[in-house]
Write a structure and sequence with these properties.
mainly beta; seven-stranded mixed beta sheet; four-stranded antiparallel beta sheet; 11 strands; globular
Length: about 120
């Protein structure tokens, strides 16, 4: 089973772009039928799926965040990244990366991101 680890700044100022990286170990992000997602959970709220990139490089967007999110990958580093533009304090959340292979899910431990001046 793969392991995932999120990394990025814990504090971002309003209007800036949030950038997070997920490093995958124990398997390749290009392995057939793996789908790699970003998910977040704001305080007191449920999980929100933000988008995904497939093993093939195909992208899947959340309709509510499509205009502000960008997901990409670096196959040489076995990483995929999230960029969220024009952040506001409402984007304060724990951000998770996750991988799905058929019915099996693997999650990172999550990283807290606070949007504040």
């Amino acid at each position: 089973q793969v392991q995932l680890q999120e990394s990025g700044p814990g504090l971002v100022k309003p209007s800036q772009t949030l950038s997070l990286t997920c490093t995958v170990s124990g398997g390749s992000i290009t392995t057939n039928y793996y789908y790699w997602s970003w998910i977040r959970q704001a305080p007191g709220k449920g999980l929100e799926w933000m988008g995904a990139i497939a093993y093939s490089g195909s992208l899947y967007d959340s309709p509510s965040l499509k205009s502000r999110t960008s997901i990409s990958r670096d196959t040489a580093k076995n990483q995929f990244t999230l960029q969220l533009s024009s952040v506001t304090p409402e984007n304060t959340a724990v951000y998770y990366c996750a991988g799905r292979h058929y019915a099996m899910d693997s999650w990172g431990q999550g990283t807290q991101v606070t949007v504040s001046v």
